[in-house]
Amino acid sequence: MLRIMIAFILGGTFAWMTFFRSEEAEDPEGKGPRYRPYLEGWLLPSYAAVMLMAVLFFPGWPELAKRAAACMIMMFLHISLYFVLLLLAQPFLRRHLRAGSCGLLWLTPNYLYLAMSSGMVVPPRWVISLPQGLVEKLAGVWLAGALVVLGWKIFSHLRFRRWLLWGAEEVSDPAVLAVWQAEVDRAREKKPKFRLVTSPQASTPITIGLFSKSVRVVLPQRHYTPEELKLIFRHELVHIGREDAWNKFFVAFCIAMCWFNPLMWLAMGRSSEDLELSCDETVLSSLGEGERRQYAELILRTAGDGRGFTTCLSASASALRYRLKSIVKPDKKISSALLVGVAFVLLFVTYGQINLAYEAGTGESVIFDGSAQDVTLRQIRREEYDNFLNELVCRDEGALTDYLTSLPLSEIVDGGDDFYGQTGEQIVLLYDAPEDILSVILWDDYIKVVPFWENRAHYYHVSGGLDWEKLDQLLGEPT
Hints:
The protein is of the alpha+beta class. It folds into 2 domains: about 350 residues, no CATH class; about 120 residues. Helix content is about 50%, strand content about 15%. The protein is built from 15 helices and 15 strands. A 10-stranded mixed beta sheet has the order 1-7-10-14-13-12-11-8-9-15. It has a 5-stranded mixed beta sheet with strand order 2-3-5-4-6, with helices on both faces. A hairpin with a 4-residue loop joins strand 11 and strand 12. Helix 3 crosses helix 9 and helix 8 packs antiparallel against helix 9.
């Protein structure tokens, strides 16, 4: 219930933000920067970094590392599926939605980390059981691939930045600086930390840098008219205000985490195109027909290089035809704020419906550690949401033990403590064992085993589900 409430609150926020966001200025009141980020692109990567640190730097905590890796795998499988569906729907979305809405749809998974918070996790509908040890091997392969891909992307970005800025100089031409300052003032950037430079390596106007002090707006060493400079600076300032470099880093991060899905690599290019189209849309909203054509001609004359986490005026020839058509003859499209909100709600509430488990064995070894004959049933009670309802009696203790020992069990990899007790009624079996009390809790298709002497809980999925009709025959209320 809490997850659904949070999903609708955030989905409504995104829908409201999309609907009321002005095309020309995200802050039309003039109380802050004109252009603002749709979403913070660093949120999910930062959360994932903390999780990965738990895996890499706490080898003495195998259970924590295993759970963190499983959570990350399931989250990025979810994002991978979302991106693929979004990729398939892109032609339809581009025809009917504003570019800003299309761009925002790529960024909504940034808040998916909230679904992993305590109280948000829901019981999975489907559990994938894998052989013992395979989960760890898969996690190791996935993590190694993700780190290699992400490391390569960061290295490529830094190498490209160094090459691009080699020999770069701050712009000193008064005419260029006058146009630049006018556009900075129009964007309402107070005390900007980014700098305007010119580089012999640049072939197109480009902005590079993730952090405000490291951002550089780079111009090629060629002449531009004041009208062209106005369009160039306006375009780049929109990207800076929206933090599109961080948005591209977020998408690249998701690609690295989902490196196993070949369609994700295609999604990265398409998401970059939508971010550029969204920027075009904002720039064009304040231009007349003549300036639109001038903007299109400027893009045609520009050969782009969009390596790394950069934004540039014309980085992709594949989207050039679509961009030019949208610039010269823009269609009136709906913002579809409702669709953005619905997409986030669905993304949020469906997370965790699939979970991983590894085959642990039968109840004989898993629940009773091979010593079912050494335990004695002490008490049976029915609970609901951890509240006591009533005591039960066992009509045939031997048959109950035989049933429990025969169950094929798979241990939930990321634990079940986050969703335990959310489904209502549970049957609690308390056994006297040689070491201490053994608690066995049955609910839905799951079993929670708590050996009191270990001071920890184990959560298992029953392959094929629990036979509740049989349990009703074996258990009943005292007469």
